[in-house]
Amino acid sequence: MYVTSPVDYFENAQPIPPTWSEDVAAEFSCVTTIHTGHSLFCEGDDADFVYKIIEGVVRTSKVLMDGRRQVMAFGYPGDIVGLSHDGLYHSDCDAIDEVKVRIYRKNTFNMSFDEEPDFCGQMLRHAATEMNDMQEHFMMLGRKNALERVASFLVVLLDRVGEKHDCTTCFDIPMSRSDIADFLGLTIETISRSLTKLRKDGVIDLPNPHRVCICKTSALRDLGENDL
Amino acid sequence: MYVTSPVDYFENAQPIPPTWSEDVAAEFSCVTTIHTGHSLFCEGDDADFVYKIIEGVVRTSKVLMDGRRQVMAFGYPGDIVGLSHDGLYHSDCDAIDEVKVRIYRKNTFNMSFDEEPDFCGQMLRHAATEMNDMQEHFMMLGRKNALERVASFLVVLLDRVGEKHDCTTCFDIPMSRSDIADFLGLTIETISRSLTKLRKDGVIDLPNPHRVCICKTSALRDLGENDL
DNA sequence: CGTCTATTTGAGTTAGCTCAACCGTCGTGG
DNA sequence: CCACGACGGTTGAGCTAACTCAAATAGACG
């Protein structure tokens, strides 16, 4: 099931000491870089690690036997990926660009919280936040049309990574059209056509295929009808 | 924003004592019944409680301004609903049939875990399980066709509440066609047609609209292509 | 400069939607 | 007791948004 080996960053793992506090936590985690296109983990692997994104963007996805793929989420800096309920990963996770992550050994906190209860609390808060995002995602996949989905997607990115320049807000889109399509449950052609329509309507500008500038923020928000 | 009042079950709430252990937990939670069609909570309400389903089935859903609705999940006995990341509920939750729940005061464990760390662990495990279910749900909404979605849905119910009788496994479907449609991102007509097709193909039997018997389990599983 | 890959654009097809009719069950009231 | 209307589910017919397939375009890279 392995595409690339996701665990060889952790060869010199230290033994786990009896107590664990915030400032020694660093000893039980390590920072590493995953190169563009490489996997953090694959579906079916033992879920031994949890990853916190420091830099770059990852993609978590699942594939059906016939190759149909659904992208669950894009993980941006601050996001946590790799939580499992049964000790196995149930999705693939790949680096979309050059990604720096902090890797935590699962057994130091996950499923056994004796050492540091607050880490569990942080984890739960994070899970609750992610579940909320997932509910927004359900709304898109189940009930919004193509243009609304693309608009919603752009609004989420706008609020998360938009850089305000005078009247427009711009940001990079590190993922391919194919990634966006598989995230939104559409095809690359429909993504392209929707972006073109938004551009022709003057809502956005596309300096290049991997960068967007939002010209009419409120129009985009109206289209996306995102919560909050 | 209220449809029905979801909080009047908790009029005689007790003050929170300083310590909290498993056997006194009952004091900080209470069991109550929510009647068919009534709400446990609504989007926008203060998320003061978390609910564990004891009996019956609940539906969590979101609606867009124009009335389009997406059902996020059906909560069966053992499931927990009402987790929030920011102190507000972001979905509606309603009783599909007569529902018995245990209501926990959020502040006794959620977001402040000083008293009982293990409750947080249970919560996190539950959240991880639910996130896994949600990922299956994404696959359905984004990448499966109507028949596959209905088959997947039936397989999940089959594994969860199926009662095996000789060669077939049967279970009740407490939710309406409209609920199923809004869960699967389809219309009631498409649900009906898909069920009829499965019946005509001999995969299932429908003694009445709210009960299914699975005749060809493996055929249904093949169609649904569920993970695990 | 040519090849490769990602994206955009165009044209025709189709799965699922919309709208409408129909059917069975249930509760209500004359 | 039965007629009636309301409601939930099923079935049919036509429509349309998004898909599929195909071609054109544009960068990126050796």
Element layout with pairings:
Two copies of one chain form a homodimer.
Chain A: E1 29-34, E2 39-41, E3 49-55, E4 58-63, E5 69-75, E6 80-81, E7 92-95, E8 99-105, H1 117-143, H2 146-161, E9 163-165, E10 168-172, H3 177-184, H4 188-200, E11 204-208, E12 211-214, H5 217-224
Antiparallel strand pairs in A: 1-8, 2-7, 3-6, 3-8, 4-5, 4-7, 9-10, 10-12, 11-12
Helix pairs in contact in A: 2-4, 2-5, 3-4
Chain A binds a DNA duplex (30 and 30 nucleotides) through residues 145-146, 176-178, 186-193, 195-196, 208-209.
CATH superfamily of the largest domain in chain A: Jelly Rolls
Q: In total, how many beta strands of chain A?
A: 12
Shape-level CATH architecture of the largest domain in chain A: Sandwich
Question: Radius of gyration of chain A, Cα only, in angstroms?
Answer: 19 Å
Shape of chain A: globular
Oligomeric nature of the chains: homodimer
Percent strand of chain A equals 25-35%
Total of domains of chain A? 2
Low-confidence stretches of chain A: 1-24, 108-115
Counting DSSP H or I runs of 4 or more residues, the number of helices of chain A is 5
CATH topology of the largest domain in chain A: Jelly Rolls
- Tell me the name of the CATH class of the largest domain in chain A: Mainly Beta
Helix and strand run of chain A: EEEEEEEEHHEEHHEEH
